[in-house]
Design brief:
It is a single chain. The chain is an alpha+beta fold and 159 residues long. It folds into two domains: 2-37; 50-147, Pleckstrin-homology domain (PH domain)/Phosphotyrosine-binding domain (PTB) (PH-domain like, Roll), CATH 2.30.29.30. It contains five helices and seven strands.
């Protein structure tokens, strides 16, 4: 092991370049996968946007990684006439499948919206019947809650 460490220190520029190239290859692969999926959200001109908040924070309750990780000031939240969109801004969106923060949710799938401190918790049903919860740190949570046509606990929490 010491021989390897000595070799790595002696050839630091080579190792740095190798790690840099591998990182670029990985990011390029993730970008290619994302582009291969095609557009997940329609263009802004094709829908009526009722609410939009950019550069906000949030997380998902899917796994321990997504609960603890989440996104800090790189989420985009949009409410249209029929849907709620939660997505990451570029370049963070190439990692969206790992953070579970890329959702296009029909408004009738939303079962509850609750305010807990500065976090707005949105519970919704997936197509397979499972429930999922997203926690969003919205700056304008009151307007967001008023636009969603579900029984909300936002008013009860004093927002």
């Amino acid at each position: 092991m010491q021989q390897f460490m000595q070799f790595a220190f002696d050839n630091f520029p080579l190792f740095f370049l190798a790690v840099f190239v591998l990182t670029l290859v990985r990011v390029g692969y993730l970008y290619w996968q994302r582009k291969k999926q095609g557009p997940q959200f329609p263009s802004r001109d094709a829908v009526n946007i009722l609410f939009e908040e950019r550069w906000t924070s949030g997380n998902s309750d899917k796994t321990l990684f997504t609960k603890l990780g989440g996104a800090s000031n790189c989420l985009r939240v949009v409410v249209t006439d029929n849907e709620l969109w939660v997505t990451l801004h570029f370049p963070f969106n190439i990692m969206a499948k790992y953070s579970d923060l890329d959702h296009r949710i029909n408004r009738d799938q939303i079962t509850s919206v609750e305010q807990q401190g500065k976090l707005t918790l949105i519970t919704f049903s997936l197509e397979d019947g499972k429930q999922r919860m997203l926690g969003l740190g919205l700056r304008n949570a009151e307007q967001f809650c008023s636009l969603l046509n579900v029984v909300t606990e936002c008013e009860e929490s004093g927002i």
